[in-house]
UniProtKB/TrEMBL annotation:
Belongs to the short-chain dehydrogenases/reductases (SDR) family. PANTHER family: 3-OXOACYL-(ACYL-CARRIER-PROTEIN) REDUCTASE, NADPH-DEPENDENT REDUCTASE BACG. SUPFAM superfamilies: NAD(P)-binding Rossmann-fold domains (SSF51735). InterPro entries: NAD(P)-bd_dom_sf (IPR036291), SDR (IPR050259), SDR_fam (IPR002347). This is Short-chain dehydrogenase/reductase SDR. Gene3D superfamilies: NAD(P)-binding Rossmann-like Domain (3.40.50.720).
């Protein structure tokens, strides 16, 4: 099985923590040159120190606020090297029922996820086509399969992201470029901790009870770890995954009940 990514350049969005950080670590282990992309330079510098750096490998980071698509576009337009791999990974919108959501929240989420992903794709696709190799992996959510209670805006935008990815996958497949989605279930990240805290406050209960209820819905009986999600994302970037495109693969401990 060919898992070698030596000589490939990877742009990893949201790489300062959580799943994005874990994906960067996995890609570096497979030989890729990693460009970390997020808004906090101190955190990104720390992640750089955790990446394997073999002979000929180089890693660096870029900073931008993903709530400002024009800033993101400006930064990525300054990239000189060919980008072979893109990990689209952006934090989810604030939780809450869809009936209570401010319409502006949908616009902001659309910009952060769809507009930024589109700008990145348009920037890197010419190089991918020339190389006859490209990988887009979008870290989304199992809400693509089953909407999650209390995440109205997020459910909406995640679905839009999956549709964007499937459309792009069909258009770029002839060039050896694949586009796939990873759907994490509840994973031990800052985002999950925040959602647990918010739910506990809204329901007037202790966070340990909320955690117990959530884990009871997962056949494996526990939350996922970032590195478990990252392993799937990294595999989809390799030559071994060259015939897999346009799909959404969940990594959720069995929580989604459908086949």
């Amino acid at each position: 099985m060919n898992l070698n990514l030596s000589g490939r350049n990877a742009l990893i969005c949201g790489a300062s923590a959580g799943i994005g950080q874990a994906v960067a670590i996995e890609l570096a282990e497979l030989g890729a040159n990693c460009i970390l992309f997020a808004r906090n330079p101190e955190k990104l510098q720390k992640v750089l120190g955790e990446l394997k750096q073999g002979e000929g490998q180089f890693h660096r980071y870029l900073t931008a606020d993903f709530s400002q698509p024009e800033d993101v576009k400006s930064v990525i337009n300054g990239i000189q090297e060919t980008i072979h791999i893109v990990i689209n990974n952006t934090g989810g919108p604030k939780g809450g029922p869809i009936v209570d959501a401010d319409p502006d929240a949908f616009q902001e989420a659309f910009k952060m996820h769809i507009v930024n992903s589109q700008n990145i794709a348009q920037r890197v696709l010419p190089g991918m086509k020339e190389a006859q190799f490209g990988r887009f992996v979008n870290i989304i959510s199992t809400s693509v399969r089953v909407p999650l209670r209390g995440l109205g805006v997020s459910n909406t935008i995640r679905g839009a992201m999956a549709s964007w990815a499937k459309t792009l996958a069909n258009e770029v497949a002839p060039y050896g470029i694949t586009v796939n989605n990873v759907l994490p279930g509840s994973t031990e990240t800052g985002r999950l901790a925040s959602l647990i805290s918010s739910q506990a406050e809204a329901r007037g209960m202790d966070t340990t009870r909320v955690v117990a209820e959530m884990q009871a819905e997962i056949p494996m009986g526990r939350f996922g770890r970032p590195e478990e999600i990252a392993s799937l994302a990294a595999f989809l970037c390799t030559p071994a995954a060259s015939y897999i495109t346009g799909v959404s693969i969940q990594a959720d401990g069995g929580r989604i009940g459908s086949i």
